[in-house]
Automatic annotation (TrEMBL):
This is Tetraspanin. It is a multi-pass membrane protein. The gene is Tspan33. It comes from Mesocricetus auratus. Keywords: Cell junction, Cell membrane, Cytoplasm, Disulfide bond, Glycoprotein, Membrane, Transmembrane, Transmembrane helix. The chain crosses the membrane at residues 6-28, 35-57, 63-88, 206-231.
Amino acid sequence: MELWKVISMVMVAVGVYARLMKHAAALACLAVDPAILLIVVGVLMFLLTFCGCIGSLRENICLLQTFSLCLTIVFLLQLAAGILGFVFSDKARGKVSELINNAIVHYRDDLDLQNLIDFGQKKFSCCGGISYRDWSQNMYFNCSDDNPSRERCSVPYSCCLPTPNQAVINTMCGQNMQALDYLEASKVIYTNGCIDKLVNWIHSNLFLLGGVALGLAIPQLVGILLSQVLVNQIKDQIKLQLYNQQHRADPWY
């Protein structure tokens, strides 16, 4: 319990720091501000662990039942999210595509977002959402004739194929790549989009993801079970105490 309290307080602290230090526009590409999400999850986790810890120490049935109910709700929400994500996989894919496209649009707005996109493209050996030409959505990489940017019709360096024994990274390796066709561009950069690569990675790592989900679910189920066992024990103790008090008051006992 104490460990979860520390984790929840760290999450709140990181969320508050990120919220104060980051500009809201930099995270406009995301459906939920990660800083707000960290704060909310951290506060809820702290309250949940508080109910479980104090409820068990003080043998408070109300707090223990609140703890058990909240864990049950969290477990059911996770289960529902997994089922909905599987059943409505096409809509989930569309949402991921929307997030990636929005991230491309805001690529230059925030250094952390830029580093995240670059890491993803290098990790999955991909470029853009559907293809490398998705980078035309960004105002700096747009191929329109009236674009004055030096990066016009280019792609980020993270799209470039790795060069063996390269001592210095060539950040201009993606220059004018959008103007080339797929065959020519594929000699220099990754032409496949990151969405298909991400979907393929998920399919190839289903056992890993299932193990993570199981690792999250087991402690929740154990917490629900133990809290209910403790509640039943406390109720039995209360019944026993009432029984003893009634018979002590009975002069024939």
